[in-house]
């Protein structure tokens, strides 16, 4: 897919009944949550709005709604459809907020407070989806690769939030903090690799002084997708 081609976001959660089922408030969910297929590579992409507002009441918030929501039922239906499509080899999810984070602050991850544990529910869905390949997010200003997530320990998450904003203080890699970008490689054997291009973070972080070019790190290969021909059925009610 060429970078100058854009996909029309017209298949996200919409309509009163669908919005009600996912407890979504009337906002821009349809245009920020959607999915599409890249027929050239056999990849199904889900773009997930993790900043959705919910109709669930929260008296601690002035807007009386809960942020950091995600349309769980819509995601499940989309996963089932893509999983049962023989032309789709793998499924990749792109979102703003991560599913898992050590000591997250308020609204730093997908809402995961009982009884609405959306983060855990999404992890379970991804873990049980045979063609699921990876979850990419940012929001937390750091770079972090985490695998073996979910009930089957087969979900991989990449947080690529080190593009240039002030980095979080608790991120302390051995070789020092760094800014950069991430390249995702899709291979014919259904594996996915990520390469972090990095340059040292300056002090102050927003320094206008000339900076060195970002250099690639060693590529990390995701676990291989398995059971690609397994039929998936709806389980969320």
From TrEMBL:
SUPFAM superfamilies referenced in this protein's UniProt entry, alphabetically: Metallo-dependent phosphatases
InterPro entries in the cross-refs: Metallo-depent_PP-like (IPR029052)
Protein name listed in UniProt: Calcineurin-like phosphoesterase domain-containing protein
